[in-house]
Protein: NAD(P)-dependent dehydrogenase, short-chain alcohol dehydrogenase family
Amino acid sequence: MQSDLLNYVPAEGMLRERVLLVTGAAMGIGKAVALQYARFGATVILVDKQDHMLEAVYDEILAAGYPKSVICQLDLLTATADAYHSLALMIKQELGRLDGLLLNAAWLGAFMPVRQHDLDLWTKMLQINLQANFLLVRACLPLLEKSPDAAIVFSTDTTDRAYYGGFGVSKAAMNALCDILAQEYDHQPFIRVNRIHTGPVRTSLRVLNFPGEHVDSNVGPEAVVGPYLYFMGPDAGQRTGEALQLAKIPADFHWAGEQGQG
Structure:
């Protein structure tokens, strides 16, 4: 199953006329997946706080001839509930629909034991990794309920190791939120809800928090887009409530659909 989903390549135009929102779209897995969503026909709403980096992703999508994307600069640490409702209203008024959410943005401030855990870091990690995602999902559910094939995909991570502190707790709660949503939407209106744990990937977050790792020891973000395409698209059908946990992927692995690959 892992091999099948890692090598999954959708049919051309599979996501045509769909509107998909991706958080953490400025870099790493979010950027890699957003580019592929656009490649296969989706209008992608690019959400991140890094405005200049979002513009670079926007330009890359435009230069490739994919459907024009939408930039939404949003800081998950400081955005209010009203900001998420305003975003949902903009989507409804300007795009007319929303078919999928990729909840990918995350932040790990530091590793530390619970006894010494910094309260400010704890609060920030729960805000970015949990509260912000709840507020975004809640604001967007009315739009997703109207889509004929809606999907929510979570990027998840390790939750129960020593020193993971607020990051581990926030990710565990995210897993629970994913399971709750999958059960609440396993009937009409049906929304496909799944989560993906890619294992170690060469992202800036990984490099920052694991300085002892050789930079080339992990696979690049472009190699793990297959499962994200599968669970967001119609080929996944009624598969919901699944937690895909990938074993460590060889650093030289290339996705079968990577352009320029055979």
